[in-house]
Write a structure and sequence with these properties.
homodimer, mainly alpha, DNA-binding
DNA sequence: GCGTCCATGTAAATGGTTACATGATTAT
DNA sequence: ATAATCATGTAACCATTTACATGGACGC
């Protein structure tokens, strides 16, 4: 499944420009299970237009560059449904942050702390974003997916908060770094909630 | 971070052949946050060898093809640590299955059911795999990451089982509020303290 | 006999990211 | 001033996936 199909999916939710489609992948309900950049969206829209799966209306705006708003055609809707009925390819997840934490023993404690904090912050932000009432979606399928994303992000935040000690030797395994950390300062462990 | 670095990471855990490295990504402790195929592993090993970051020993085996076992050199270990100290690029997750479920209203109910079942099965298998005592890893960083993977998979399985009715409005349709509060309300049941 | 596991590798094709190119408006 | 937001698009580059090529051993 390529970016073309993802764009069709966004357009099912309503007409949009390339710029707006990208925002959907960044902030909208798609953000937690797919991504795409301009370099792939614009060419994809061009192909879809050439194939007659979408139409395009140029819109002049005041104080802003012109917009090209794309709409699904009937053929586009059919093509999208056909695509949706293929077998899904397996999920792929890649996280350099987790990879780094896996090799935490080879890391500068400061760097490990930073990677940990940032990863936690990202997922706290995701929880906040998905918990925001503005973010609610219509339709039970959408709600299901929305809830799934929230459940996963919450699980990550909970685990990271509760198991912090496993990564930073607060328990049995005590090394030099853990001593000065464990006693006093928490290296900003309780960072302000999300907001990034 | 490319496959070269991932291979170095596997080799930190012990010498291995290209074939064995791939298995690490499929079944080992890396499986839940990265992947790689032969087509990228073998060329990567070639480059690493040319760069002097690994050495290679050909090993004849009885009743099996010869093996090329790779080992980290000191330079390789240093290069790996250097790589680990870069800023991690953001996580990327892509799931066609979730994308399809998001558009469940456009799907054949049978197909939706299949996608749902398969997705659940995959994550149940992951939970089983990570719960298996054989799968335990040494070192607190490893345990932390292992526990994180388990927590996420468990969260997915739990959510999918409990919110099944949201997706398939079958008979006892779960109240829509249950989705919103599914995370906030009854989270006590799932707080897997996996890493112990 | 057939499929699967072991084992290595290459080449073509796919597809996406990054950098470039442009440019007005608004907020700091 | 400077950065950010809005807005579109191209081209070079990069990485990965897929298909191909080879071949013995082992279980069914």
């Amino acid at each position: 499944m390529d970016v073309k199909t993802l764009c069709l999916g966004v357009l099912v939710l309503g007409d949009a420009s390339g710029y707006e489609i990208k925002k959907h992948f960044e902030e909208g309900p798609f953000s937690h299970f797919h991504a795409a950049g301009f370099g792939s969206i614009y060419p994809a829209l061009g192909t879809l237009l050439a194939d007659g799966l979408v139409t395009c209306t140029e819109m002049a705006q005041e104080g802003r560059p012109d917009k090209k708003v794309y709409s699904l055609t009937e053929a586009g809707r059919r093509a999208f449904r056909r695509e949706l009925h293929k077998a899904p390819s397996p999920d792929s997840y890649r996280s350099e942050a987790i990879f780094m934490m896996f090799f935490g023993d080879l890391l500068d404690p400061d760097h490990l702390g930073e990677v940990y904090q940032r990863h936690l912050a990202v997922h706290r932000a995701k929880v906040d974003c998905l918990s925001d009432p503005d973010c609610t979606v219509a339709g039970r399928d959408r709600k299901f997916v929305h809830g799934l994303g929230l459940a996963v992000s919450r699980a990550i935040v909970d685990y990271m908060e509760n198991s912090r000690g496993v990564l930073f030797g607060a328990g049995d395994v005590v090394d030099e770094d853990a001593v000065d950390e464990g006693g006093g300062g928490e290296r900003g462990a309780e960072t302000p909630r999300a907001a990034e």
